Automatic annotation (TrEMBL):
Keywords: ATP-binding, Nucleotide-binding, Transport
Taxon lineage: Bacteria, Bacillati, Actinomycetota, Actinomycetes, Streptosporangiales
Keyword Transport among record annotations: yes
Domain ABC transporter positions: 2-218
Keyword Transport set for record: yes
GO MF, one example: ATP binding
Protein name: ABC transporter ATP-binding protein
Organism expressing this protein natively: Streptosporangium carneum
Family: Belongs to the ABC transporter superfamily.
Amino acid sequence: MITLDGLTKRYGGKTAVDDLTLELTPGTVTGFLGPNGAGKSTAMRVILGLDAPTCGTALIGGRRYADLDRPLRTVGALLDARAVHPARSGRDHLRAMALSQDISFSRVEEVLALTGMTDAARRRAGTYSLGMSQRLGIAGALLGDPQVLMLDEPVNGLDPDGVRWIRTLLRSLAAEGRTVFVSSHLMSEMERTADRLIVLGRGRLLADESMERLAAGA
Ligand code: ADP
Ligand code: ADP
């Protein structure tokens, strides 16, 4: 569902993503592991068309993000939970996203319920804890009922209940046949979540292993 072919992103002389070639498959939670600065966010931003690749390609279901008809229905993403306008309520934020892509307000209520944000959604996003912002971001990612989900450090700032909740959610999304791509700088967050682990270091692919094989080798 997601295909990267020789994907490279440079900022000036600095190579953030270096010749990344891989394929992400449906029904799988793929963990994207690497220390801060490894290039995980950059790779996700390029896949989402928020940044142009220097060379190589990133395709979602065979198409570039920019060529997707109603992108939220194909791919949902959580990149920066704090990017929501602070004066806007969580509900209004999701409704604006929904309106832009012909998604119903009843679907907004569905994803709010799914993320436990129904009550909080009437408050301004600026009053949210990081954990609530993450939940709202995940609600936004789920809004279009997409087959592909890309979540950049979704567990950051969550309490243990929140971490367990995300794990259960990601596992059930993959069980429904979706392609789930989730980044983290902590191996411990991936252990009971990912089926497959892609390790990135200084923009380069260092390892690509099934979790089963990793566990057996440990
Ligand atoms: P990660 O998500 O793994 O922490 P990033 O993708 O954020 O890594 O960053 C990878 C590298 O690219 C870092 O060295 C970072 O400083 C650099 N970088 C990311 N975005 C930009 C940008 N807009 N301009 C210049 N350098 C950037
Ligand atoms: P604004 O209200 O300023 O237009 P929004 O946050 O409502 O900003 O979103 C603007 C556009 O960004 C949306 O139409 C949508 O296409 C895209 N977008 C926002 N959040 C996501 C997301 N989680 N996943 C994919 N696209 C998103």
